[in-house]
Each structure stands twice: as C-alpha cells, then as structure tokens.
Amino acid sequence: MLRLTGQPLCAATGITETIKFMHKKEKIEHLKSNIKYLIKSRGETQLALCAASGLTRTTIYNILEGRVVNVQQSTIRKISNFFGVSYIEIETVDFEDKESVESSISVLGNKNPAAVPVIKESLLIQSMDKRIGELATTFPLTYYFGVASNVIGVLLEKGISGVNDVGDLLIVRKGFSAGDKEKLAYDKTTKRLFVTCASGFECETAFVVGEIMEERFNG
Fold first, then answer.
1. Pick from 87, 96, 103: nearest CA to 33
2. Which of 80, 112, 172, 214 has a Cα-to-Cα distance from 146 of 20 to 30 A?
C-alpha cells in the first residue's frame, strides 16, 4: 500500500481535506470581516455595494452571516472591485489591522473623530426633536471619522429584516434627505424602522429619520 509520511493514503487524503477546509473557513472569515470593515470605513452601505456590483442583498447578507462555505471567484472580484482593493487580499489580509498601521504614520492618523450620541431604537422617536448637544449629554457616545453635523447613532433592538440584525449600529445624519442614498425611516403604523432609497420620501404613515452614513455590524 502506498504510504505518505508514514500514513496510509486514505488517512493522508483526509488530513489534506481537513487542511483545505480550514483554509477555506479562514478565507471566508477574512472576507466577511473585511466587507464589514470596508463598508464602515468607506462610508458605504450594503445597498450601494449591491447596486454597483450587481449582487443581491441576500448574497451579501449570507456571506456576512457565515451561511456560505464557498464564495465564487466572480463574486469576490465584484466585491473587491467595488472597494478598489485586491481580490486576493480581501480573502487573506485583515484590512482593519493593515489600515490602522498605515494611518498611524499618515497625517490622517491625527484626525479627531466627532462624538456621536448612541440612541436605542425604542428611545429614538421621543428623541428626534432634541438637539445633538442635549443628546450627547444624555446618551452614551461613539465616534465618527467624517465631516458632518447633526449625526446620531441608532442602536437596533428589533433589527430590519434582510438588512440589519439586532445590535447593529447605524450612523445617521438626522433630517430629511431628498437624494437617492439609503435612508432610515420609521413606519408609524407598525412602529418599526425600515430602509428606503426613495427620493423625497415622506408620507402620512411614515417619515425619514435621516440618511444612513455608516453601518456597524454586531459581531
């Protein structure tokens, strides 16, 4: 019987398959964490990624939830092209660590972040008319690296089906937005938050909380 490093061929094959599986799993974890980080750090949204790449939200959602074992190379290329990064690195490199090191030696490494009050979903509606200064002294703070005013963080307690999970944090610029960017809105009938890209959206049963500037995923 043919042996490899002292093991029967079937045993060696099993070890090889295990190593391949572990390697695939590691690549998926890199891909998942990098998508989350790149969406956050580039000020993008899942919807923008899907619209530009031609991928469905279900595809992106399943990758981020770890529900797929094998991701097609064509899908990885579309994702990496959207962010302008290497399709090889997006599966093998931790971009957050890489860019953290790079920023520490750049002029942007000394950029001061803006303090943003984090409001739980259940307290959002009653807080809409309050000024940011008041909210910042009432609620815990997170930080946003960007140029904007009237910004709040919305901590999801119910989640948004097919879009965001419980515990996700949405960085939102409060107020009406007439553009086609992704907006967080509130349905007065169901008393639930939802996401829309409708331009000039506003009606009797719902209103816009504000434009979504960044998504931070829970876990």
1. 96
2. 80
pLDDT digits 0-9 by tens, 119-157: 999 999 999 988 888 898 889 988 887 767 889 999 999
Average pLDDT (184-200) is 87
Tell me, what amino acid is at 173?
R
- Domains of the chain, first to last: 3-103 (1.10.260.40), 112-216 (2.10.109)
- Residue 108 CA to residue 128 CA, distance in Å, equals 32
The whole model's pTM is what? 0.53
Closest CA to 35 of 25, 46, 47, 51: 46
CA distance linking residue 44 with residue 38, whole number of Å: 8
Rounded to 10 degrees, what is the CA torsion of 25, 31, 32, 36?
Answer: 160
Burial group, residue 177, by CB count within 10 angstroms (0-12, 13-18, 19+): buried
